[in-house]
């Protein structure tokens, strides 16, 4: 359980922050960039949820919770050391990735195959879901970059990869099951 009795601590005033293991790093550290962008993606979902109802809103709520798990995962390096010490930190697991895949497959059954790329937009919900898609894709790029130099849970990277796909398909669902998608017309404004 997290208890926040005081919001500001002044410990970051010199440009550093603490990771989940207590190690202090620069606020522009690659790990902080990755989990900070996951937090940004979560905030964009909050905007999308202003326009979502029913199953879509419930799915977005689950994803928001997953993204807190993902942030906790990314902010805790030294996976091997944790297990040696007997501490099991919160990590994204394969079933969370599989759930996204199942949801993508279920949504995709309602859609006609694409014959062109689509432009982000359409309904307010679709436009917000496309923003969620692009921010989560940036979070994925940052997590992959981090994984190139430090330990990162591979399931966390997989989750981010599936998540941007989830938002793409959900955006089409929000556009009247793809019927209101705005298609890209190559060279249309030449």
TrEMBL record:
Query: Which domain of life does this protein belong to?
Result: Bacteria
Q: Does the keyword Cytoplasm apply?
A: yes
Coarsely, its chief localization is: cytoplasm
Q: Which pathway features in its UniProt record? A: Cofactor biosynthesis; adenosylcobalamin biosynthesis; adenosylcobalamin from cob(II)yrinate a,c-diamide: step 2/7
- Indicate the transmembrane segments per the record: none
What GO CC terms are in its UniProt record? cytoplasm
First and last residue of the signal peptide: none
Give the E.C. number(s): 2.5.1.17
Instruction: Output the GO biological process annotations, alphabetical, semicolon-separated.
Output: cobalamin biosynthetic process
**Catalyzes what?**
2 cob(II)yrinate a,c diamide + reduced [electron-transfer flavoprotein] + 2 ATP = 2 adenosylcob(III)yrinate a,c-diamide + 2 triphosphate + oxidized [electron-transfer flavoprotein] + 3 H(+); 2 cob(II)alamin + reduced [electron-transfer flavoprotein] + 2 ATP = 2 adenosylcob(III)alamin + 2 triphosphate + oxidized [electron-transfer flavoprotein] + 3 H(+)
Positions the record marks as coiled coil are none
Cited InterPro entries? CblAdoTrfase-like, CblAdoTrfase-like_sf, PduO-typ
Q: Which GO terms describe its molecular function?
A: ATP binding; corrinoid adenosyltransferase activity
- Report the Pfam families cross-referenced here: Cob_adeno_trans
Q: Does the keyword Nucleus apply?
A: no
Task: Give the protein family.
Answer: Belongs to the Cob(I)alamin adenosyltransferase family.
Q: What is this protein called?
A: Corrinoid adenosyltransferase
**Organismal lineage:** Bacteria, Pseudomonadati, Pseudomonadota, Alphaproteobacteria, Rhodobacterales
């Amino acid at each position: 359980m997290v208890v926040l009795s005081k919001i500001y601590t002044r410990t970051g005033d010199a440009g550093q922050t603490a990771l989940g293991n207590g190690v202090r790093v620069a606020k522009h550290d690659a790990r902080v960039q990755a989990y900070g962008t996951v937090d940004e993606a979560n905030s964009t979902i909050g905007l999308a949820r202003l326009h979502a109802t029913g199953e879509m809103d419930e799915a977005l709520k689950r994803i928001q919770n997953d993204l807190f798990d993902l942030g906790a995962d990314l902010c805790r390096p030294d996976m091997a050391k944790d297990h040696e010490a007997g501490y099991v930190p919160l990590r994204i697991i394969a079933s969370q990735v599989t759930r996204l895949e199942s949801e993508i497959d279920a949504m995709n059954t309602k859609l006609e195959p694409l014959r062109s790329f689509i432009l982000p937009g359409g309904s307010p919900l679709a436009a917000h879901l496309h923003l969620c898609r692009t921010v989560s894709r940036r979070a994925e790029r940052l997590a992959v970059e981090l994984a190139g130099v430090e330990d990162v849970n591979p399931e966390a990277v997989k989750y981010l990869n599936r998540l941007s796909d989830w938002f793409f398909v959900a955006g089409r669902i929000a556009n009247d099951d793809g019927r209101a998608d705005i298609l890209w017309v190559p060279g249309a404004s030449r």
